[in-house]
């Protein structure tokens, strides 16, 4: 069984939370919330891919 890496796990949880927040802000019709969640999602995904590239 592989060992669970904490940094990628936290980045993945952050990305999923940002996706869920986008859905909530769409329902609330908050453009600022949608934009902020999208920026957080892009940052989390970018950091995750960069971390994966560094660890290979």
Automatic annotation (TrEMBL):
Domain of life: Bacteria
Residues that span the membrane, as ranges: 7-26, 32-50
Pfam families in the cross-refs: DUF5325
Keywords of this entry: Membrane, Transmembrane, Transmembrane helix
InterPro entries referenced in this protein's UniProt entry, alphabetically: DUF5325 (IPR035211)
Name of the protein in its database record: DUF5325 family protein
Organism encoding this protein: Geobacillus thermoleovorans CCB_US3_UF5
